[in-house]
Specification:
The complex is a heterodimer of chains A (291) and B (286). Chain A is of the alpha/beta class and 291 residues long. Chain A has seven helices and ten strands. The N terminus of chain A is likely disordered. Chain B is mainly alpha-helical and 286 residues long. The longest helix of chain B has 39 residues. Chain B contains 13 helices and no strands. Classes of the chains: A alpha/beta (291), B mainly alpha (286). At the A-B interface, strand 6 and helix 2 of A face helix 1, helix 10 and helix 11 of B.
């Protein structure tokens, strides 16, 4: 399971080749829940490529199976059919090589920010105590939480919690980061700030990242490549390469290119939304339904 | 772990910066409570003395001993070793039953939560036994256990046991799956998951169970002492103290016994709350 981890020798580890450079492929993956009579197909015959060193953003209508996709790649669940590969090898269970930043917050409430961050390496015992402490402090400083190290998650604001969680994931030096609607539930202001913060972090190292969201603006602002999923069962609807220059600034969302991308994606999402209304037998959707 | 010690230490330090007494005296909530109790006692006194004062005994309240009489009875009893012996005996029984219930109930509840086979085997019989009120066990346990003392302890144990197990089971089963998944991603073994996630995640429920269970043990111990008859003077405990006062026809002394139990129960649950705040510093931050 553990790759040839040469990167455990300290702070410079982020520059070794296999950290953050994994490539993930989904090949004809299907996943559903329940017995035959009440079977819910969540993901159907989905093939997808998460390119090495790129930020792949998955958008889709809410409830379309994005979280299930995350669970499959993280190894919390197995596909019913098809396979999920990391650098050509089948994923069989959770691993520190694939860290997930969860919806809302999944910081452990009975551990302080610092304890949360060192949790993984401490369990595995892969760093010396002092070294780990130094590294954790460094990361916490980077995410702007140096003064909040010894606070409990409940004492942090929403944005701080997300940053703490980023630090907790990063310290494990994963080969891929999986973000499951990480900024959901934040107010518009902190959401914008977190997006820019996250982008700076990404643009620094260009580590493989799969970012799941239901916000189209967020998706275009962040993505190298945009993957649009259909309604449940999730199928691939479109892959759009986003050629906005990096480093990105928030104003870029107002550029004509960004607008084009948005129109393109909205078109597809809108069709999907209409389809879901028809499926559920509701009347026509009111105006243009977004996200 | 050093971190936890450090933090809880600083939390404690912050709260002791102003002395507890000072804080209590400045607290309006405290004073409202005091006034409420005094008003209550005054009304009670008036009601109980209504015959002397108004020449007409109020129904029910008129029959009660006045608080002043209770205080007199209390002051007489305070100097008698038998009264304190009753306290000691009841406390001992409650603690014995309660601790046994914790020691057996917590691991049992956790096993039910963690292991599916264990749950499928032991939960059904547990659920059949649970609705039986502890007091219904008294006759059987008097016959079954060789001494009175043991049967009382057993019945108090039962009083707390079921509540504790149900709370622990519920608490452990409702731990957010994301904590477990996050820990698993980071390489946690089953052992780690249990000690780092499941056990601390269940602590709040353990303490809820303890607080409720403690209340029930006091209820049960008093009833069990009354039924089993206790024997001589003090060794009967507070329950028998009340029963004895009833047999002796001393109404004020009955009330003394009742209030004593109230105080004992309050002390016990305060101790649990205090311990809970110490053990779970992350829950009382605001």
């Amino acid at each position: 399971m553990h790759n040839t981890d040469s990167g455990m020798d300290g702070v410079t580890a982020t520059h070794t080749s296999d950290i953050g450079k994994a490539r993930v492929e989904l090949k004809n993956v299907s996943k559903g829940y329940g017995e035959e009579w009440g079977r819910q197909e969540i993901i159907k015959n989905l093939s997808l490529d998460v390119a090495s060193g790129a930020l792949t953003v998955v958008v889709g209508p809410s409830g379309c199976g994005k979280t299930t996709l995350v669970n499959l790649i993280a190894g919390f669940e197995r596909p019913d059919a098809g396979e999920v590969l990391l650098d050509g090898r089948r994923i069989t269970g959770p691993s520190k090589n694939r860290m997930v930043v969860f919806q809302e917050t999944a910081l452990i409430p009975w551990q302080t920010t610092f304890q949360n961050v060192v949790f993984g390496p401490k369990l595995r015992g892969d760093m010396k105590r002092k070294e780990l402490r130094k590294k954790a402090e460094e990361l916490l400083k980077k995410v702007g939480l140096a003064d909040f190290m010894h606070k409990y998650p409940l004492q942090l604001s929403g944005g701080m919690q997300r940053r703490a969680e980023l630090a907790r994931a990063l310290i494990n030096q994963p080969q891929i980061m999986i973000m499951d609607e990480p900024f959901r539930g934040l107010d518009a202001m902190s959401r914008g700030l977190m997006q820019e913060f996250f982008l700076r972090l990404f643009e620094e190292n260009h580590q493989t990242n799969l970012f799941v969201t239901s916000e189209i603006d967020e998706a275009i602002f962040l993505a190298d490549r945009l993957v649009v999923l259909s309604n449940r069962p999730a199928q691939l609807r479109a892959v759009i390469d986003i050629h906005l220059p990096r480093p990105r600034h928030y104003q870029m969302l107002n550029s004509p290119e960004a607008y084009q991308y948005k129109r393109q994606a909205m078109e597809i999402l809108h069709q999907e939304a209409m389809r879901s209304f028809k499926q559920t037998g509701a009347f026509g959707p009111p105006g243009t339904t977004r996200s | 772990m050093a971190g936890v010690a450090q933090v809880s230490h600083s939390v404690v330090r912050a709260s002791s910066r102003r002395s507890l007494l000072r804080k209590t005296l400045d607290n309006s909530e405290f004073w409202r409570g005091i006034v409420a109790i005094i008003v209550f006692l005054c009304l009670w006194e008036l009601g109980a003395r209504s015959k002397q004062l108004f020449g007409y005994a109020l129904p029910y309240v008129g029959l009660l001993p006045a608080p002043s009489e209770v205080v007199v009875a209390w002051s007489k009893v305070l100097t008698k070793p038998g009264y304190w012996e009753s306290w000691y005996q009841s406390f001992k029984r409650v603690l014995l039953g309660f601790l046994a219930a914790q020691v057996i109930g917590i691991p049992f509840g956790l096993m039910l939560a963690v292991n599916r086979y264990f749950r499928e085997i032991f939960f059904p019989p547990f659920e059949v036994l649970r609705p039986i009120p502890p007091l219904a066990w008294v006759p059987a346990s008097l016959i079954f256990w060789p001494t009175n003392e043991m049967s009382i302890a057993f019945v108090t144990f039962l009083g707390a046991f079921f509540t504790i197990v149900i709370n622990v089971l519920g608490g452990a089963r409702t731990i957010d799956v994301r904590y477990l998944r996050a820990a698993q991603s980071m390489g946690a073994s089953q052992w780690h998951l249990f000690w780092r996630i499941i056990l601390p995640g269940t602590l709040p429920s353990i303490f809820t169970g303890a607080a409720v269970g403690m209340g029930i043990t006091w209820e049960v111990v008093v009833a069990a002492e009354m039924i089993s008859g206790g024997g001589t003077q003090g060794s009967g405990g507070l329950g028998f103290f009340i029963w004895n006062s009833y047999m002796g026809g001393s109404l004020p002394q009955i009330v003394v016994g009742m209030i004593s139990i109230g105080i004992a129960g309050y002390l016990s649950s305060s101790a649990i709350r205090w311990l809970g705040n110490r053990v779970m510093p992350w829950r009382h931050l605001f």
